[in-house]
Amino acid sequence: MDDALTIDSRGDFGPWAIEAAKQIVGEQRFELAKAARDGTEGELRDAGSGLGQAITNALLEVYDGLLDGAQDE
User: Fold this and answer.
1) Of 35, 55, 67, 73, which is least surrounded by CB within 10 A?
2) What angle do CA 18, 24, 27 make, to 5 degrees?
3) Are 31 and 39 in contact (CB under 8 A)?
4) Contact 7, 66 (CB under 8 A)
5) Contact 58, 24 (CB under 8 A)
6) 7 or 72, which is more confident?
7) Greater pLDDT, 68 or 29
């Protein structure tokens, strides 16, 4: 998510979150699919956890930015 985006409301956040999750899944789907096809249960769990963590990190980054913006006002 390299493009700057202004999120002014909850309505702006929802569509951004969906698009961010789609992009992250697109970037990490190969590792998850490979683990599902060829890996062990542990490798699959690790790949799924990595995907979830990447999405969580993106959401928290935006949330932190929203808090920083609120403190500036």
Assistant:
1) 73
2) 145
3) no
4) yes
5) yes
6) 7
7) 29
Helix, strand, coil shares of the chain, percent, nearest 5, are 85, 0, 15
Q: Could you give the CA distance from residue 57 to residue 19 in angstroms, rounded to a whole number?
A: 14
Give the total residue count for the chain: 73
Q: How far apart are CA 38 and CA 62, in angstroms?
A: 35
Nearest-5° Cα angle at 58, 66 to 2:
90
User: In which band, very low, low, confident or very high, does the pLDDT at 7 lie, cut at 50, 70 and 90?
Assistant: confident
- Residue 47 CB neighbour total at 10 angstroms: 20
- The gap from C-alpha 63 to its chain's centroid, in whole angstroms, comes to 12
Percentage of the chain surpassing pLDDT 90?
Answer: 40
